[in-house]
Amino acid sequence: MLRVxxxxxxxxxxxxxxxxxxxxxxxxxxxxxxxMTSFARFDLTEYSRLIRRTVRQHxxxxxxxxxxxxxxxxxxxxxxxxxxxxxxxxxxxRSTAEIQAALxxxxxxxxxxxxxxxxxxxxxxxxxxxADLAAAPAAWxxxxxxxxELAGFADYRxxxxxxxx
Length: 165
Hints:
Blueprint: E1 2-5, H1 10-17, E2 23-28, E3 31-34, H2 44-59, E4 64-67, H3 71-83, E5 90-92, H4 96-104, H5 116-124, H6 130-135, H7 144-150, E6 162-163
Parallel strand pairs: 4-5
Antiparallel strand pairs: 1-3, 1-4, 2-3, 2-6
């Protein structure tokens, strides 16, 4: 899953230029998700850098790119790409170890869909990070889909795609 923050139309153009079939969800005016499964033959880090350069060149808008197996993890990857200079605007979470490290460095209140009140409740139960939430008992997690997303398993019933090609 690719999350591009800052532009919702260019990833579609880039996908077309590489002649790959993909699906896209435009999440908001400045954010989109792409299913990158058909891009396995490409170096996703380099491809993401190309997206960043192209968006910047054509719009002047700086964007960050996060790639991970699920939407929730892609949002976490994007946040790391944006906030941590090490990633230089591109964070690709491939391995279990990379995902676990990202979850450990993500505060529970920074997880997509965790509101202020739920965050306080979780913190009162000593769930401070995304890793803590992923490991929490199912009874403490409001949504099984959220727990599966953090574990790296997409629940496609919750995904609505718009075909790019």
